[in-house]
Amino acid sequence: MTIESDPSYPAHWEADVVLRDGGTARIRPITTEDAGRLVSFYEQVSDESKYYRFFAPHPRLSDRDVRRFTHHDYVDRVGLAATIGGEFIGTVRYDRIGPDGRPASEPADEAEVAFLVQDAHQGRGVASALLEHIGAVARERGIRRFAAEVLPANTKMIKVFTDVGYQQKRSFEDGSVHLTLDLEPTAESLAVQRAREQRAEAHSVQRLLAPGSVAVIGVSRSGAGVGAAALRNLRDSGFHGHLYAVNEAVTRDLLDGVRAYRTIGAVDAPVDLAVIAVPAERVPDAVAACGEHGVQGLVVLSAGYGESGPAGLARQRELVRQVRSYGMRLIGPNAYGVINTAPEVELNASLTPAPMPMRGRTGLFTQSGAIGIALLSALLRRGEGLSSFVSAGNRADVSGNDILQYWYDDEATDVALMYLETLGNPRKFTRLARRTAAVKPVVVAKGGRHTPAGHVVPDTRLPEATVSALLRQAGVIRVDTVTELVDVGLLLAAQPLPAGPRIAILGNSESLGVLTYDACLAQGLRPLPPLDLTTAAAPADFRAALAAALASEDCDAVVVTAIPWVSEHALADDLADALREAVAEVPGKPVAVVHVELGELVEALSATRGPSPTPAPYAPYPPAPSNAGRDETGTAVEKPPAGDRIPSYPAAERAVRALAEAVRYGQWRRGLAEGGYVPEFEDVDEAGAAAQLAGLLAEVDDGAVLTLAEWDARELLARYGIGVRSALPAPSADAAVRAAGVLGYPVALKTTAPHLRHRADLGGVRLDLANETELRRSYEELTDALGKPAELQPVVQAMVPRGVDTVVSSVIDPAAGAVLSFGLAGVASELLGDTAHRLVPATDRDAAGLIRSIRAAPLLFGWRGSDPVDTPALEELLLRLSRLVDDHPEVIGVSLEPVVVAAEGLSVLSATVRVAHPPARGDLGPRTLPSY
């Protein structure tokens, strides 16, 4: 089972997976050392399951069977096992076969596959997970089809094959069902895989947030310490399940009024969740005890792991391996804890003391305990409740991706707030965030942009601008600070989405109205002239003005500004009631309040006053039910329904920023509804490109990168309809003249040396040379100024129609996948970082948005009277390049620079293409948990 004992052992096939019920299992290749495990596994399988596997009674495995099922060459014969606690719970095997159905070797591309799952674990999705992984292995080994024989009565296994989404054929022969599966991933198989991933990972989080019983391990007898605090918070939150305290030195039946035990194994009932608060060196024993007792999940509050240095990081990796070996999931270590305010649960397994946060429609995830405390405090002060809260600490297992999977179909959560220091797997995060953002807002504040030396948060290789662009493409609302996170979250949780950027402004201060107007312009909104109600305005005046603004067809949202009256406290409640009445009278548009030194108004606006207004028919979120938290005495605390609350802000800039994010998110949602498509180009030669790449990489070692020669790059790009202008070498002035004779005047003379390439500002490019005399003079000037021809590597190229010089590129990032980029050519754009990015494959909407999202985009559309360029041709080029890198993962980098876009058409003047052998498993590989 180790590489040392078998050098051919494919360690990269090992993977941890989440099963359908939320538990985990490890999938790995079967080795010669597994004979005992295989026999033990088989003895626990029912006679019926054995009959279904072998089509005859097969009570035990013979020595020959054991040898056959444990000896593999990992090419033509492969076996995988799903394990929990080191023991087999399911196996799958394929044998390569020829056209006659008998054993064969390469190049045969078909294999017979068979499964066996322990009866106690059937129905958990074990066979489906094994099929995903054995399919990926088979594709890696050149197998394109699976054949399977299944008895008609074995309906469960038939369903495993038919539900996977692969193209398949089915027939009935000799008393059995014969199935043939094409292993090429399809849109349907990918959708099935991702739907299973979502259900499994969401269920794994649900088991952590809604346990039927909780044990706190590490509760001190004195009542001091983290464990005792966690126990008190669980007890005082009104947790509806069974609660146990564990302390190995306990001498009485109760600790803090909770039933106490020396070990978790002594608890004579199931335990769903264990909160571990013991020193790091004692955590492995606690985890082992939990695993043996059948605990489903852990929250590890203990510190001393990845945050403490290399030794702690090694300890953390071992912790994850140990936890997963028992089929459990882990929040932490170094976690702050979890909260679930659902009325049937009321779980506070965190270090947040009473009172329990109010029940609300906002979910909150943080990687930092300190930030979590700050966010909880800010939300509480401003009257916002929570549906769930997870502070994952070192995020060794359960991450923001898992929480997004849970929130996606959690009916109790309408808005997702996340503080992240790393994205973990950006490719998966953007995919999940895009799907979630399509049904509810996802607001992210990301720390760690500039990681100081020695900080525990690993730096990312993705440029920050790229991260932001990818998040925007996924519909994520990216904010810069935790204050903005709360500001935006409050607005989205309490108000409908604006239908557009037109903002009405009204209030009792002309100056504050002007500040709000300026803030709107700065955020790209379209403010209407502020309506000054004067300082003499009474609450009734505010009500009438707000109702009129909401009823107007000329605005999409309203900002109300207010400064204190002489008698602030007496009028705060009246003003809050007046504003709520106006919103109730004309619902459907968002309202935000900007106040100056009106603290009482903040409290009044977040409190319930009378019946909740009827939500607008097109409101993006369902109305929140009347929900209760608890105060210090355990008395239920009602949180106002979303429609009854109006968010307030102490500064115009903060209110407008939140409103602008809501406007942009609403635009993204509407654009998503309109859809986009990845066009098919009839002139694409995908097969020819694949053959060319296979030939080019035939002599390239794994891990090595090959930069294609100019002619190879031009040939490859041409297969996808991307033409690159020829450039003829000019090692001498005479060669330059001959090249110009071939191309025809006028021509351009330019250097291609790496230090001068694409640097026209350094004088390495001479344009519009109309004849031999001009060409020779320019050649002499170039070599005199910059160096010898051998250093400059000059080339001659035919002139193309004048236009705007741009750069189109794509690169495969190990974390984010294929990224398509666009910007204008030149040092100014490079210096300002004015480049836009989109994930591949790009849709037509992505391509159109890409060229319009750079700051210099007006240059493409006729800025200052210039002719607009051919943007449709540019969009087509972007889509063709996207298609190339999506079809061929061997293409890891393409740079087209410059691309001159004229009024009609465009010209690609230079191209660099880098290729390498693709990784064994890419985006279409089987679902796995991050490895450690």
Tell me about this structure:
- With 932 residues, the chain is an alpha/beta fold.
- The protein is built from 27 helices and 41 strands.
- A hairpin with a 5-residue loop joins strand 28 (627-630) and strand 29.
- The model is unreliable at 1-5, 451-460 and 608-640 (pLDDT under 50).
What's the short story on this structure?
The protein has 932 residues and is an alpha/beta fold. It contains 27 helices and 41 strands.
* Category from helices, strands and their pairing: alpha/beta
Q: What is the first-to-last residue Cα distance?
A: 17 Å
- Strand % is 15-25%
Strand tally: 41
Poorly predicted segments: 1-5, 451-460, 608-640
Number of helices: 27
The backbone outline, from C-alpha atoms, is flat
Please specify the SSE layout and strand pairing.
Blueprint: E1 15-18, E2 24-29, H1 35-43, H2 47-54, H3 63-70, E3 77-84, E4 87-97, E5 110-117, H4 126-140, E6 145-150, H5 155-162, E7 168-173, E8 176-182, H6 187-209, E9 213-217, H7 226-236, E10 242-246, E11 254-255, E12 258-261, E13 273-276, H8 283-293, E14 297-300, H9 310-325, E15 329-331, E16 337-340, E17 347-350, E18 359-366, H10 369-381, E19 386-391, H11 400-408, E20 415-420, H12 426-437, E21 442-446, H13 464-473, E22 477-479, H14 482-494, E23 502-507, H15 510-522, E24 526-527, E25 531-532, H16 539-551, E26 557-562, H17 568-585, E27 591-595, H18 599-605, E28 627-630, E29 636-639, E30 648-649, H19 652-674, H20 686-697, E31 706-707, H21 710-718, E32 728-729, H22 733-743, E33 747-751, E34 765-769, H23 772-786, H24 789-792, E35 794-798, E36 804-813, E37 817-824, H25 827-832, E38 835-839, H26 844-852, H27 871-887, E39 891-901, E40 906-908, E41 911-915
Parallel strand pairs: 5-6, 9-10, 9-13, 10-12, 13-14, 14-15, 18-19, 18-20, 20-21, 21-22, 23-24, 23-25, 23-26, 26-27, 27-30
Antiparallel strand pairs: 1-2, 2-3, 3-4, 4-5, 6-8, 7-8, 11-12, 16-17, 16-19, 28-29, 31-41, 32-35, 33-34, 33-35, 36-37, 36-39, 37-38, 39-40, 39-41
Helix pairs in contact: 6-11, 8-9, 10-14, 11-12, 12-13, 14-19, 15-19, 16-17, 17-18, 22-23, 26-27
